[in-house]
Amino acid sequence: MKILIPIKRVNDYNVKVRPNQANTDVDLSNVKMAMNPFCEIAVEEAIRLKEAGKADEIVVVTIGDDKHQEQLRTALALGADRALHVKTDITLQPLDVAKTLAKVYERESANLVIMGKVGIDGDHNQTGQMFAALTNLPQATFASEIEINGNDVQVTREIDGGLETLTAEMPAVITTDLRLNEPRYASLPNIMKAKRKPLEELSLDELNVNVESKVTTLKVESPPQRQEGVKVENVEQLVDKLRNEAKVI
Amino acid sequence: MKTLVIAEHNGENLSAATLSVIDAAKKLGRDIDLLVASNSSSNILAEAKVVEGVSTVLDFSHEKFANEIAEDIAACVVSVKDSYDFFLASSSTSGKNNLPRAAALLDIQQISEVTEILDDKTFKKPIYAGSCIATVQSTQEKNALTIRTTSFEKTGASGGSASIETKDVPGTDSRKSGFVKNELTVSDRPELTAADIVVSGGRGMQNGDNFALLEGVATKLNAAVGASRAAVDSGFVPNDYQVGQTGKSVAPNLYIAVGISGAIQHLAGMKDSKTIVAINKDEEAPIFKVADYGLVADLFEALPDLESKL
User: Fold this and answer.
1) Which of B218, B68, B295, B291 has the alpha carbon at shortest distance from A139?
2) Which residues of B touch A141 (CB under 8 A)?
3) Which end of chain A, N or C, is less surrounded by CB atoms within 10 Å?
4) Helix A69-78 vs helix A37-51: angle between axes, to the nearest 10 degrees?
């Protein structure tokens, strides 16, 4: 079984990102970049499936400029077998990412595609669902548990009211939620080995994808700041403030 | 052209989130139709019919809608696409699951988590866990939006008089997933995203059993109980308690954060609350920066004290 894992390069999740001075975009100069945490969970899940003898090959793919190869190498160091880099200097919107991944999927014909549910940068939460639509594949989003039974995959999903379990015949698309697993760190020997693993470069032209920006960002600003309030001395004062000042209880 | 809102329900009742999406839809200045896919639920249709602001309820009735599968919902949306230039759903796990699938089939770049509608092409949405707010403009003729419900009012649940149009239920062209089971959290408390008061616990709660202390306060206040990602990750409570970037967004009248340090990812989900209270023993905790009332105290003493004084 072959698993395809699309990954995204984003800001490190510990970094608080701010608008640039002109308020035209975010300021990512000097911001540490990393693999999107939900993509790390996808890579980890694929590695666990391979370790359990359920998968034979793990292929990771990303779309972006040359710097994106850092995240592909990270995935290779963690345990992916092969990497694909769709090179472009354009920042694609989720629909175009899904279209590009659909072309990659055509070439690779994986049995399972696992991807992060959301990028912590744009907070779109779309690409997996769009990719599933464009490839006519079943989707199971926000997964907290994945179980392979023969040709079927059973997925427990995190939904607002609790948990839902779906089953799908593979190939299928799964997006990861936080509790699916805890990703490992890459060991130094594996980081060295990853440098020799195959990494193939592709272009949007080769894949025959037409990208088109359909949504333009006009402005990026900081959210309105809340005024810092007051400290109360004790519970009694707190209850008094809530009753008589804020009038919320 | 009209606006199509995808209704959310639990099989019996229309969800409050749908009322907020309709409030957002009103700002687009078009007639609003409501798509209801259900297992022939006369109750949901009766509720949908009287929602204020709805022109027509599109009734997709079929036993397969006893459980909601994104592949089926997307097919319903596509089957009526020609009459609409806006497709709206809430940014709940249901809306997030369904709408992007439909949008891709319609070749629409969806705009997610809309918090403000400036005009029918221009929208505001948070990015980077709410660290920044982007104003985006669509150049598309048709648009799909998921709506952050806490940023909008709720339209009236009654007073409307929509007509009901029975629609043919389309088959699904694509291969699709099948429902196995649900394990829903059962609670007598108000639902987290709809509650007037939310009491949330973080890593400082130390374990799941200690959430009983929060429950005591929540019962007195008729509040919902929430949690930070740290508390969920540590296994104290299930994921559906989670408030924050990767969980739910809430904006109650009163939000009480207990033993929560206030990571940006948590603030993303609660900083629009009207009044915020923070109880934490670390006076340097960033949660105090957004709190209207801060109490530096040991939560194991403060919570029983609070419960007794309410």
Assistant:
1) B68
2) 70, 93, 96-97
3) N
4) 30
Question: A2-245 maps to which CATH number?
Answer: 3.40.50.620
Q: How confident is the model at residue A227 (pLDDT cuts 50, 70, 90)?
A: confident
Does B156 share its domain with B43? yes
What residue ranges of chain B have pLDDT lower than 50?
Answer: none
ipTM for the complex? 0.96
- pLDDT tens, residue by residue, A11-58: 999 999 999 999 999 999 999 999 999 999 999 999 999 999 999 999
Tokens representing residue B38 in the block: 């259900």
pTM given for the model? 0.95
Give chain B positions within 8 Å (CB) of A232. Answer: 293-295
How do residues B261-300 score in pLDDT, each as one tens digit? 999 999 999 999 999 999 999 999 999 999 999 999 999 9
Contacts of B296 in chain A (CB under 8 A): 231
Is the Cβ pair A16, B277 closer than 8 Å? no
B19 and B137 inside one domain: yes
